[in-house]
Structures are given as C-alpha cells and as structure tokens.
Design goal:
This protein is of the alpha/beta class and about 290 residues long. Helices cover about 40% and strands about 15% of the residues. Strands 1, 2, 3, 4, 5, 6, 7, 8 and 9 form a nine-stranded mixed β-sheet that branches. The longest helix is centred in the middle third of the chain and has 27 residues. Bound molecules: adenosine monophosphate, fe (iii) ion (FE) (2 copies) and zinc ion. One fe (iii) ion (FE) binds next to loops.
C-alpha cells in the first residue's frame, strides 16, 4: 500500500488540474492519495470524477492558521484536515473569507512590486487564476519567472516573497484551535502539516503541539520533504508521547516545487487509525 496524504492542484497553488493530479498519482503507483488544496474543497468533485481504477481519494484541505509559537509570539501553521463534511456552514464561510483575503493580499503584493518597477501585471495575475482557486505566493512567483524577473520559484521566494521581504504581506488566518474544533464538529480529523519545517520560518514548540493534541488534534506530519532525518526522529518521539497518528506525504505542487508525488508515504496502519476517527465524509473510489 502506497499512501500520499498531502497534494495540491490548480484549485490552489499546484500546477496539475485535479484530473491530472489523480492521473499522476496512479502513474506513481499510489493506492491512496489525499487532495489537500489550501483553503478550498473545489478540487474534490473533479478529482473524484476522474479517479482511475484502483486509486482511492481522501478528500481534504490544508487550512491556513495562526498559532501561539510557545515563546510569546504567533506563527503561521498549516493544518491538514481530512474527511470532513464540506457543507458545514462555518467551514464554508471561513474558507470563503480566507480565499477572498488571499486574492486581495496577492493583488496588494503584486501592486507593490509593480510600483517599484517590476514587470508584473497584478490584474492579469488574478484574472488568470481559475475561478474560485485559492491564490497564493506561488502564483506570483510563477508570474515573476515568466516575466524573467527571477529564474526560479525558489529564487522568487528567497528574494521577494519570503516573510522577511518588504513585499510580503501577512493574512488574518484562522486561530488553529478554532480550526481543529470546526473540523471536529464537521466530523473530520486534523494533522499538523510540516510542524518543524524550520527553513520556511519560525515554528511551534513541542509544548504547543501537546496543547493542540489535548484540543483534538489527531496527527503529525512527520515524513515531509522539509524535515531532515533528525527532525523526523524528534517529531516521531513527540507523536509517540502524545499518542498522535503519524503521516508521511510529498506536499506535491506539480511544477511549482521540485518534488515527486508519492516521494514520501504514510504507513497503512497509521492511515487506518486516521480514517477510523473520521465520520464526516468518505474515502472515494477503490
Ligand atoms: P501563501 O499560501 O501565499 O502564504 O504561500 C505559501 C505557499 O508557498 C506554500 O504553501 C508553498 O506551496 C509555497 N512556498 C513556500 N515557500 C516556498 C519556497 N521557498 N519555494 C517554493 N514554494 C514555496
Ligand atoms: Fe502551497
Ligand atoms: Fe503547507
Ligand atoms: Zn501543502
């Protein structure tokens, strides 16, 4: 059994359509793939309709959240949510709010860059996004690559789009404990995404993870491309102590990141534990 529980399509900042993504998952020999676009479930229906025989799809999302870091500050955290009822009013409302804010924020970042003379067209950038798609910095990064301002998405992040850059704007993300509670009320389960991806920016302490676990968090994403072997061992230890499910996933974004779908996978026993805790939706296909 090969299981990858974290991927992105054109419904957010991936480059494969949901249909292409499930085809890529099957070609990579996966048995189970979760679609976890940022702050949207719009990819679920087209991915389900295009499921190749033998592949199962776990409907999910990656929620943009803010959390205390355990040292008196706040940090951005990403919360993977699976198998929740996507018609939950409070979830639908919060995702609408976040997607509107994502568009507004990307537009303002692009306008600042244009005002400083960069060759970028903010209105065109937004017009080119698929309808309802969650806008993200990778879209602006790709536009900067196309305009020849930088030679890669990584360079765009390093020079202009990272948290330390004057062009970077924050969003008003969902408090993570509120997001965990909303997903639970909708019958779903939550996994903290890439908890110790320190290269991306500041992360939470183990104490914060313990607090989230006591407020209904089900799992930790341990095997992730942004975690080195020492970090994985550290997280596995925390998960064991707190009796949390552990997952492994690629965080595939198509051509926007140089990693392969299925390059990290989840242990089938851990997957069963995760699925058996959810009541809000069902795994599709098979
Ligand atoms: P946003 O959702 O707009 O805050 O942008 C964050 C997204 O950008 C993440 O979900 C990743 O997909 C992507 N990302 C973050 N850092 C990098 C990086 N250094 N290189 C490429 N993509 C990145
Ligand atoms: Fe992303
Ligand atoms: Fe993430
Ligand atoms: Zn992701």
């Amino acid at each position: 059994m090969r299981i990858d529980l974290h991927t992105h399509s054109t419904a957010s900042d991936g480059s494969d359509s949901p249909e292409e993504l499930v085809a890529a998952a099957a070609r990579a020999g996966l048995d189970v793939v979760a679609l976890t676009d940022h702050d949207t479930t719009f990819g679920w229906a087209p991915a389900t309709a295009a499921l190749p025989p033998g592949l199962r799809l776990v409907p999910g999302a990656e929620l943009s959240c803010v959390s205390p870091d355990g040292n008196g500050r706040h940090v951005t955290v990403h919360l993977l949510a699976y198998l929740f009822d996507d018609t939950s009013d409070e979830l639908v409302d919060e995702q609408l709010r976040l997607r509107a804010e994502r568009r507004e924020r990307l537009l303002r970042m692009a306008v600042m860059m244009r005002e400083d003379g960069f060759s970028v067209d903010p209105e065109l950038l937004l017009a080119e996004l698929p309808e309802n798609a969650s806008a993200g910095r990778p879209h602006l990064a790709a536009a900067l690559v196309r305009a020849g301002v930088v030679s890669s998405v990584d360079e765009a992040f390093a020079r202009y789009l990272g948290a330390g850059s004057p062009y970077h704007l924050r969003r008003a993300d969902t408090p993570v404990r509120r997001a965990i509670e909303m997903i639970r009320r909708a019958g779903g389960v939550t996994v903290l995404a890439h908890p110790f991806a320190r290269a991306r920016g500041p992360v939470v302490t183990a104490g914060v993870i313990a607090d989230l676990a006591s407020h209904g968090l089900t799992g930790l994403e341990v095997n992730h491309p942004d975690h080195d072997p020492g970090t994985r061992a550290e997280l596995a230890g925390i998960a064991r102590e707190l009796d949390l499910v552990t997952t492994g996933s690629s965080d595939y974004h198509g051509v926007h990141k140089s990693l392969r779908i299925g390059q990290e996978t989840t242990d089938p026993e851990q997957f069963e534990r995760l699925v058996s805790s959810a009541t809000g939706n069902h795994v599709r296909g098979g």
